[in-house]
Design brief:
- By secondary structure, this protein is an all-alpha fold.
- 51% of the residues lie in helices and 0% in strands.
- The protein has helices spanning 50-66, 73-92, 97-109, 111-114, 118-131.
- α1 packs antiparallel against α5 (118-131), α2 packs antiparallel against α3 and α3 packs antiparallel against α5.
- It is elongated and about 80 Å long.
Length: 133
């Protein structure tokens, strides 16, 4: 029961403990509850096809493997290309051929390291499948 007006005609303010919001499940929407909130919605397309999905998985595994090594100029360039490819696949659904070619160049430059990693080999194979080489 909501309390009635006070003698001056004003309703008493509810205490914070009386305010509740219950949300079951929300998909594909953005909303805010309460004072002074900001809503930011990010929608990601995800991989457009299985070959892009496979490349994304391999890229994520290679990034995790690279994190275990001492950083060098070569590994930093490779990691930057891996991040760019992953971002493009996640936001646009697939990495463009130019981006894939840059990743392949960075992978080749880091060949001594990545050639010994299963994740590096997986990225190379996924690139060959997508670039046709």
């Amino acid at each position: 029961m909501t309390p009635g007006p006070t003698p001056d005609g004003q309703r008493p303010q509810q205490s914070q403990s009386q305010r509740t919001v219950h949300i079951g499940s929300v998909t594909g929407s953005a909303f805010a509850v309460g004072d002074h909130n900001t809503v930011t919605q990010h929608q990601h397309a995800g991989p457009a096809d299985e070959s892009q999905a496979e490349l994304l998985r391999a890229v994520q595994e290679l990034r995790a493997d690279l994190a275990r090594f001492t950083a060098s100029d070569t590994t930093e360039v490779l990691d930057a290309e891996l991040v760019s490819v992953a971002d493009e696949i996640e936001t646009a659904g697939g990495a463009a051929p130019g981006r894939l070619a840059r990743l392949q160049e960075a992978l080749t430059a880091a060949g001594a390291l990545t050639g010994t990693l299963a994740s590096g080999v997986a990225v190379a194979e996924a690139l060959r499948a997508l670039l046709g080489g």
